[in-house]
Amino acid sequence: MRPDHETPALLLGLIGEGIGESLSPTLYESEAAQRGILCIYQRIDLDELKLGPEHLPELLTAAERLGFAGLNITHPCKQAVIPYLHELSDEARAIGAVNTVVLRNGRRIGHNTDHYGFSQNMREHLGAREPGRVVQLGAGGAGVAVADALLRLGARSLTLFDQAPERAQALAHTLQTRFPQAQVAAGRNLADAMREADGLVNATPVGMRKHPGTPLPPELLEPRHWFSEIIYFPLETELLRIARQKGCHTVNGLGMVVHQAARAFELYTGGLPADARRMAAHVTEVLSRRAEAAHAG
């Protein structure tokens, strides 16, 4: 069913750093085509434009003037964008980060669909397994949504690490107040935390092609750990590959990006639901073609 008002065309975009390999354009354009909607999706790469988060006001204004229906927001702008919005959804306000901005009737409305995407992905891949005691790396824009989701999924404890320790401490304090049933703290010693942990989440950009490497020493991962990655390009980060080789229960970032995009698609279209399974199948096919092309090259 289409919403009451027709949406024959959609102009969408993504603002972030190093997003040249983002799957968002094909993800939204393909699903829109399945719904009979012409969608044009534009990457707004801060690296290519030689701009920073401080340029968000002019980018948002330009998007409004050009008729964009909405924007996805990624690293490093998920928190920086908030002061330039007119309204926040309850979830975005509680989490303190925005990854989806709907531009409608002269207003900028911020949402957070990362929370939903991560939760759905974890439910699908962890199954009946409880999160237990979790170590999370990264307390930035995506990290705040992931941490909230982990506690809502029933994590007994959550230990946060970040390159900026004060950011991890601030997030831990906020979450502990909201989730008194769990133990939430900023970590001090990563090795000690991993010895006590049941699972690990990487919510940092380390592992992306622009930020190669691993966000922690791989020897700290043990086969008993589950490991969840939120990066999806590349689909298999170095740490995810190592975790699989060690026999860890692993969750890649594909499901998170698909589910968060499906929810954002619904927001952009004013209520038209997206088919997450179809979107996942499409993205898997695109990734397979990319891998074949890279191997052939």
From TrEMBL:
Shikimate dehydrogenase substrate binding N-terminal domain boundaries: 14-101
Enzymatic reactions: shikimate + NADP(+) = 3-dehydroshikimate + NADPH + H(+)
Molecular function GO terms recorded: shikimate 3-dehydrogenase (NADP+) activity
Binding annotation for shikimate: S22, L23, S24, T74, N99, D114, Y232, Q260
Sites where the protein binds NADP(+): D90, G138, A139, G140, G141, A142, I230, G253
Enzyme class: oxidoreductase
Active site, renumbered: K78 (proton acceptor)
Domain (SDH C-terminal): residue spans on this chain: 253-282
InterPro entries listed in its UniProt record: AlaDH/PNT_NAD(H)-bd (IPR007698), Aminoacid_DH-like_N_sf (IPR046346), NAD(P)-bd_dom_sf (IPR036291), SDH_C (IPR041121), Shikimate_DH-bd_N (IPR013708), Shikimate_DH_fam (IPR022893)
Segments forming domain Alanine dehydrogenase/pyridine nucleotide transhydrogenase NAD(H)-binding: 130-212
Amino-acid biosynthesis among keywords: yes
Keywords tagged on the record: Amino-acid biosynthesis, Aromatic amino acid biosynthesis, NADP, Oxidoreductase
Pathway(s) of this molecule: Metabolic intermediate biosynthesis; chorismate biosynthesis; chorismate from D-erythrose 4-phosphate and phosphoenolpyruvate: step 4/7
Enzyme Commission designation: 1.1.1.25
Keyword Metal-binding: no
Protein task: Involved in the biosynthesis of the chorismate, which leads to the biosynthesis of aromatic amino acids. Catalyzes the reversible NADPH linked reduction of 3-dehydroshikimate (DHSA) to yield shikimate (SA).
Description of how the protein assembles with itself and partners: Homodimer.
Family: Belongs to the shikimate dehydrogenase family.
Protein name: Shikimate dehydrogenase (NADP(+))
Organism of provenance: Castellaniella hirudinis
Gene name in the database record: aroE
